[in-house]
Design a protein that fits this description.
By secondary structure, this protein is α+β, with helices and mostly antiparallel strands. It has four domains: 149 residues, OB fold (Dihydrolipoamide Acetyltransferase, E2P) (Beta Barrel), CATH 2.40.50; 243 residues, DNA ligase/mRNA capping enzyme (D-amino Acid Aminotransferase, Chain A, domain 1); 178 residues, DNA polymerase, domain 1, CATH 1.10.150.20; 68 residues, Rossmann fold (3-Layer(aba) Sandwich), CATH 3.40.50. 37% of the residues lie in helices and 21% in strands. The strands form eight sheets. It has a five-stranded mixed β-sheet with strand order 2-13-10-3-9. The protein is globular, with a radius of gyration of 27 Å. The termini are far apart. About 1% of the residues have low confidence.
């Protein structure tokens, strides 16, 4: 049995470490495809399964949580096509439940956190999870002043003009309303309106659309609000952000208030008192799903009492007081026609199944990611097999297995290549796992000499989370990489394109696919990114294990490009002081430091970095605000806390900007000790660390 297929409770410490590393890399790659390139390669269900396994391992092995853990990320960066809007209250995502048992455990966790007895009521709401685009609407004195997409949860895209064109969104509120209120909900399109739009597109000889969700999202994010106005978009309100004066004390009461202001709210929302009632309403909505006029992919459960919501708080990217109970994925059968190999930015070889086209849930699918050779072996599939596939959403499905009774006599097994499919035919090597044995990831050993890796590296560099250069997507990168007149082989080459074009007889405007206007737009877009935030610069380099969140940490830690650059070179040269300095940064550990050292220790990479740095101006990092007495400090809670649970104490400290550690060290700033504190209290005393009791903690933080 492979590690990827092994139950979490059977993993050894070494296997869990290796599996978390695999999941972090794989989920980061899927995030890049989905958020950075609008080109997802796995289904929602498969992506959820990866995140779920990652979380399960982290809960079983809490000491192994990585600094680049997927559980610490949310949302996607904002496109430069739109103005930015900073959310007064972050727009986060929801954790998922995939079974009745998950839903029951969610309610049990709420009880444990709040220290409630078995008979104490926990009233919750249950409502359909709309499959659309999240939107936040800000009203001041009853008038709509701005509308923003979720973006990365902190900063969204300004789509105010487009929101005004949506019939369900009032420009002026009705009734009695707060002076300031941010109304949040989902923009969607009904099935009937979607089919009518596709019929109109077909009659006019234009491209038709795949599904209502993508069509609604694309319609709202148009630069021309006239296009948005021509699309039949709708809006369900179900949440809020900043509110100057709360009109209700419960979730249900707030939604009823939103309805009184003139918003459409979902009539299927119900109050429930037990987990059994939640599940019963889930079943009722699931049964009604096919007859609804809009798409839903689950049911959302929320604690009704807003005071309890505040006590429960948040865990990284999700609230403790809410969860989405997802519907099972849809399934179909088709024929496996072949298996191709794709080479990613880091050289990882990923097998992709090529399927006989099949419609699953209203979408035609033709391929599926198979992850690695072990997955192919686990499934036991051969080329020519009839395979069962499933999807949940609008992306590539997963293969569940094959139908033995339909296997043809000439079905062929797949042999994983031992050399890279690139022209160099370089050997394929396997990563080592935590125990020193062979891992599941196979990589091309050609590094940046491999054309696939160089192209993928460039695609990463221009992606939305990195330099986000408009007009320089996958196809354009492929074009310039192979173009003999204006080749782009490294990131720095992008910023010399205009200069080289000016002195080149074969101008870009004269090449197929370009023109005078499009060429100039590309040059202008490149020029606009010549000044870049430090965190985007670091992320754009494509250093292994350095995701967006880690790049932000490094940027804030060093402040300037020169600071990070010099530190990275020092680490690469084996400077122990520089390594310790980097290790002292929050959430930066050995894997990241080793990756930085390896990257800057390679001459080709250093040349790439220096050439790029000569072409751009890197902005200093924005320092985080410090608006509480414990912001930026490392806190340790020990002993028996009497006024709050340990989880509640940790949540409170993190909300105030502190970092909570489970052990006392030289990095600890403060120890909060309750009755029965033992070795941690003694260690704090030996290190001269300040110790206070629980009452003093509340006095300190107000």
């Amino acid at each position: 049995m492979t590690i990827a297929a092994k139950p979490v409770d059977q993993l050894t410490l070494e296997e869990a470490t290796a599996e978390l590393a695999r999941l972090a890399a794989e989920i980061a790659e899927h995030d890049r495809h989905y958020h950075g390139e609008d080109a997802p390669t796995i289904s929602d269900a498969e992506y959820d399964a990866l995140r779920r396994r990652n979380l399960a391992i982290e809960q079983t092995f809490p000491d192994l949580v990585r600094e680049d853990s997927p559980s610490k990320r949310v949302g996607a960066p904002v496109s430069e096509k739109f103005e930015k809007v900073r959310h007064k209250v972050p727009m986060l995502s929801l954790d998922n439940a995939f079974s009745d048992e998950d839903a029951i455990e969610f309610v049990a966790r709420i009880r444990r956190f709040l220290k409630l007895g078995a008979d104490a009521p926990v009233i919750m709401t249950a409502e359909p999870k709309i499959d659309g685009l999240s939107l936040s609407l800000r009203y001041e004195s009853g008038r709509l002043v701005s509308a923003a997409t979720r973006g990365d949860g902190q900063v969204g895209e300004n789509v105010t003009a487009n929101a005004r064109a949506v019939a369900d969104i009032p420009n002026v509120l009705s009734g009695e309303f707060p002076d300031i209120i941010e109304v949040r909900g989902e923009v969607y399109m009904t099935h009937r309106d979607f089919l009518a739009l596709n019929e109109r597109q077909e009659k006019e000889g234009k491209q038709t659309y795949v599904n209502p969700r993508n069509t609604a999202a694309g319609s709202l994010r148009q630069l021309d609000s006239g296009i948005t106005a021509s699309r039949p978009l709708k809006f369900f309100a179900y949440a809020w952000g900043e509110v100057s004066e709360m009109p209700a004390e419960t979730q249900m009461g707030m939604v009823e208030a939103l309805a009184s202001y003139g918003f459409s709210t979902n009539e299927l929302m119900r109050r429930c008192e037990t987990a059994e009632e939640l599940i019963a309403h889930y079943r009722a909505i699931e049964a009604e799903r096919g007859s609804l006029s809009y798409d839903i992919d689950g049911v959302v459960y929320k604690v009704d009492d807003l005071a309890l919501q505040q006590r429960l708080g948040y865990i990284s990217r999700t609230p403790r007081w809410a969860i989405a109970h997802k519907f099972p994925a849809e399934k179909a059968s088709t024929i496996l026609r072949g298996i191709d190999i794709q080479v990613g930015r880091t050289g990882a070889l990923t097998p992709v199944a090529r399927l006989e086209p099949v419609t699953v849930g209203g979408v035609v699918v033709t391929n599926a990611t198979l992850h690695n050779a072990e997955e192919i072996e686990r499934l036991g599939i051969k080329i020519g097999d009839t395979v069962t596939v499933q999807r949940a959403g609008d992306v590539i499905p997963q293969i569940l297995g094959y139908l033995p009774e339909h296997r043809p006599k000439d079905a062929e097994g797949f042999v994983f290549p031992t050399v890279c499919p690139c022209d160099l035919k370089t050997p394929v090597v396997r990563d080592a796992n935590a125990g020193g044995g062979e891992g599941v990831v196979r990589r091309c050993s050609g590094e940046f000499a491999c054309p696939h890796q160089r192209i993928e590296h460039l695609r990463h560099f221009v992606s939305r989370r990195a330099f986000d250069i408009d007009g320089l997507g996958e196809k354009q990168i492929e074009f310039f990489f192979h173009d003999p007149d204006l080749p782009v082989k490294a990131p720095g080459d992008i910023f010399t394109l205009a200069e080289r074009d000016a002195g080149n007889l074969r101008k870009l405007k004269d090449k197929e696919g370009f023109g005078t206007v499009s060429a100039q737009k590309l040059f202008d877009a490149i020029e606009a990114r010549r000044t870049i935030p430090l965190e985007r610069m670091i992320y754009g380099l494509g250093i292994r294990h350095v995701g967006e969140r880690t790049a932000v940490t490094l940027a804030r830690g060093y402040g300037t490009w020169a600071g990070f650059h010099d530190a990275a070179l020092a680490v690469a040269e084996g400077d122990e002081a520089a390594r310790e300095e980097m290790d002292a940064l929050d959430d930066i550990g050995g894997a990241v430091i080793d990756a930085v050292a390896t990257y800057f220790g390679e001459a080709h990479n250093r040349k790439l970095v220096e050439e790029l740095a000569d072409q751009v101006e890197v902005e200093e990092a924005e320092r985080p605000a410090t608006n509480s007495p414990v912001a930026g400090k490392t806190i340790v809670f020990t002993g028996a806390l009497e006024r709050m649970s340990r989880d509640e104490a940790k949540a409170m400290a993190e909300r105030l900007g502190a970092k909570v550690s489970g052990s006392v060290s030289k990095k600890t700033d403060l120890v909060v000790a309750g009755p029965g504190a033992g070795s941690k209290l003694k260690q704090a005393s030996e290190l001269g660390i300040e110790v206070i009791d629980e009452d003093a903690w509340f006095d300190l933080v107000g």
